[in-house]
């Protein structure tokens, strides 16, 4: 989708580049490309040369020219071929050659930032087979630049604070997630396979989300689905049947044109068991306390400690075995992370996924998760689907 | 899915390690992990230390222990935590620490191979947000090893020749693809959105594929779908409507427990136009000639030249702008690649995707693609769905 140039965002990045005395950034992780250019590559071979001053240069795969022209915030687009009759190397080598050429042309070789520590990246548009940096990529810039520094901390810092446009885009991903959850709530039946429930959710987002409100060009969802005893801290979707009277938990990532939401939503066909009523009451209390705590100026380590202490008081010490708070934006998981042995302060403009969970020995349990935009007035929940899914169920039954 | 240890495969890898005088390989790309251990990681943080002699060591994310024990070909499993209360670093650092420790313990520090040039990787089990190597990963091994070499050429060579077990596993992915195409053929209607067709295909594979015949633990599909004028060499799935009397083309990747198929299949609601009859006849001829040529001992550069020459003779010089032949296996795209400026010979045991295409100016065109296992008797097509989709349509109508 074409979006107006997010001047606020690009200015923040340039300010950080000035503070760190960088001539240029060269990014190739698909999420950083979307972030700085609004161009979402199909195959992960593409790159952006983003100078501190002047226009950026987008290096795009030839058949994506129309998409690049429609979406990119720079008009300086250089193309490389997927198949080049004279060059049998893979396409990313031609992209790298162009990036080096652009840096040389513009004499941007004094001090540059590349993604030396880009440990994870979100998907390209094709997904299923993303493209990663290689040793050759890292070495090539060292050969032409006076100094190469890791651009990751700078990009993490910039990305942590969202602009109005970013919140609008994440809102679209959250709207699609809520609609898809309502679709699942209305169509789930005991005995269905977990993977059929996942397929239903993902299919709804892809089918309805592409073209959604004329504002979304590409929408995709990824899920892990577990029902009843299948609920665990971390396993794959299986072919276990959906249980009546017990929750079916959906770990959800929805992506709208490169902007994400990371949610955990539950649905229960039938009347929840007493055991689950108790667990849900406990988790809602823990969840609401963590959400209330999350405001501008609050401490990340303290949020982690506080949430785990409440879960321990509720009878589940040592849980959960996964982080309970992290950033969301151009990835489903991004900096900052709340950790008791870490540092950091919650700031206005951040979007945080908050996700306490309790898992029973032998299977079963629950996790609640939504994304919260930190505002002057505390924070704002981004997905309308209720965390107390007893309410969601009631709404479904009145139809 | 638990599979018996593929002794033939592991022996081939060890022979190559001996030829290249390597003490050990350390792999972390999810596809190489599946290839050498049969363990498919959820998040891409995991690693395998694979020595030339003795048992391998799997380094697995703690909550995946049950999956690791069920599937892994090694009993030596070391676990790292997703959340460690004393360590605020991301999980992949703990995995890296363990890999280094195992190499030191076993004194495997003379000469090791890591994935220095792993330019692309297939998905982890979560997909949507894969994990990539960082500069720290590359540097760490240099600090402890006498010599670090790039393991990629060795793994490419080993992976190019498939074992009987690998063909069986790729057969499952192809069965699911054929069933999903039949499902699409029976349910596609003019006016549907391209993304709804993609969702239908992907949902079928995930819903039916998980648990398929008791032989598939995780199945997923990725598609690009274009109809009529939307058909191009390379664009994203959109919200264009399915055209009557014109093909809807599905670019398909189906993955069954880490083994893939890469296909292009077409379906046409209504009677194909005369223009498309002509194009399909031409492409079938080109396709069948390329397939006949592909046998043990034939030349990769010659296959590329020959196929492009036939397309040029048919009136479309310079087409297609993408490669027309590549390997398939633990990725949808892997070595070898056929290129007129490259080298290489087709060998018995390879599986090759063959995919000639012709794209019209202004939109529309066709691509045919299936995967072929090179055998003593020539080769064998792996997906039963017909490339002459006029036949597929007829079959659908007789129901």
Please write out the topology:
The structure is a homodimer of 399-residue chains.
Chain A: H1 7-19, E1 24-27, H2 30-37, E2 47-51, E3 57-61, H3 65-71, E4 77-80, H4 91-105, E5 111-114, H5 135-144, E6 147-150, H6 152-160, H7 164-187, H8 194-209, E7 219-227, E8 248-256, E9 259-267, H9 274-293, H10 300-313, E10 325-327, E11 334-337, E12 351-354, E13 357-359, E14 365-367, E15 370-375, E16 378-381, H11 389-397
Parallel strand pairs in A: 1-5, 3-4, 5-6
Antiparallel strand pairs in A: 1-2, 2-3, 7-8, 8-9, 10-11, 10-12, 12-15, 13-14, 15-16
Helix pairs in contact in A: 4-5, 7-8, 9-10
Described by the principal axes of the CA atoms, the overall outline of chain A is globular
Number of strands of chain A: 16
CA distance, first residue to last residue of chain A: 34 Å
Helix content of chain A: 25-40%
CATH class of the largest domain in chain A: Alpha Beta
Assembly state (oligomeric): homodimer
CATH architecture label of the largest domain in chain A: Alpha-Beta Complex
- The helix/strand series of chain A, from N terminus to C terminus, equals HEHEEHEHEHEHHHEEEHHEEEEEEEH
- Computed over alpha carbons, the radius of gyration of chain A is 22 Å
Largest interface: A-B, 83 and 83 residues
Strands of the biggest beta sheet of chain A: in what spatial order?
A: 4-3-2-1-5-6
Mean pLDDT across the residues of chain A is 94
């Amino acid at each position: 989708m074409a979006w107006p140039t997010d001047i606020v965002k690009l200015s923040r990045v340039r300010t950080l580049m000035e503070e760190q005395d960088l001539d240029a950034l060269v990014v190739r992780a698909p999420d950083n490309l979307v972030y700085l250019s609004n161009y979402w590559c199909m195959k992960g071979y593409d790159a952006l040369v983003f100078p501190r001053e002047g226009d950026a240069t987008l290096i795009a795969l030839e058949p994506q020219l129309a998409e690049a022209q429609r979406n990119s915030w720079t008009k300086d687009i250089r193309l490389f071929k997927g198949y080049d009759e004279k060059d049998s190397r893979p396409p990313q080598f031609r992209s790298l050659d162009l990036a080096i050429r652009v840096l040389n042309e513009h004499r941007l070789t004094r001090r540059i930032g590349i993604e030396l520590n880009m440990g994870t990246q979100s998907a390209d548009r094709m997904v299923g087979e993303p493209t990663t940096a290689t040793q050759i990529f890292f070495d090539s810039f060292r050969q032409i630049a006076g100094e190469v520094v890791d651009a990751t901390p700078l990009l993490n810092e910039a990305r942590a604070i969202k602009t109005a446009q970013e919140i609008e885009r994440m809102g679209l991903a959250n709207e699609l997630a809520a609609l898809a959850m309502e679709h699942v709530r209305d169509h789930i039946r005991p005995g269905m396979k977990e993977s059929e429930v996942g397929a239903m959710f993902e299919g709804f987002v892809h089918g309805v989300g592409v073209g959604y409100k004329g504002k979304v060009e590409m929408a995709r969802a990824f899920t892990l689905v577990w029902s009843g005893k299948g609920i665990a801290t971390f396993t794959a979707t299986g072919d276990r049947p959906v249980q009546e009277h017990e929750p079916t938990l959906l770990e959800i990532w929805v992506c709208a044109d490169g902007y994400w939401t990371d949610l955990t939503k539950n649905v229960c066909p039938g009347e929840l068991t007493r055991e689950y009523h108790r667990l849900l009451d406990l988790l809602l209390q823990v969840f609401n306390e963590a959400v209330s705590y999350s405001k501008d100026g609050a401490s990340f380590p303290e949020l982690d400690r506080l949430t785990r202490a409440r879960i321990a008081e509720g009878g589940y010490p040592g849980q959960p075995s996964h982080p309970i708070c992290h950033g969301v934006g151009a990835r489903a998981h991004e900096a900052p992370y709340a950790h008791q042995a870490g540092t950091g302060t919650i700031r206005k403009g951040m979007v945080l996924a908050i996700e306490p969970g309790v898992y029973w020995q032998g299977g079963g349990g629950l996790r609640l998760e939504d994304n919260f935009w930190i505002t002057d007035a505390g924070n704002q929940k981004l997905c309308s689907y209720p965390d107390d899914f007893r309410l969601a169920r009631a709404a479904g039954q009145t139809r």
